[in-house]
Amino acid sequence: MNNAYLERAKSAIDDPKILSLVAAKRAKQLALGMRPMVKCKSENWLDIALLEIAEGKLSYEFSDTPEEDIFADVTSDPVSNQQATAKKDDLLADDSDDKLFDPIEDTSRLADIFADEDNSDK
What we know:
By secondary structure, the protein is mainly α.
């Protein structure tokens, strides 16, 4: 990490916790393929992010509402929960031919599969 870029970025964002979060998030975006907004001699993603912050190309904003919880299993809408439960039940009750078979109960089908494998090796 380039200390000169860090000192310049500290003048733009004075809180070190916020600076580290903004720089880390931007470095991750750059690593995933986003284009840099500045020309930088370094190829280090964090250096580029710090230089973007220092030059004023990148800033931050806090929202009053919390971000959506992507790990929640259920939604706050009871209608959506009922629809999701109904869809899950439909999928579990599906008796189509493309379901997996139980090799203990369906030994004839299992024997056919192994016979086909033996024939393909010859």
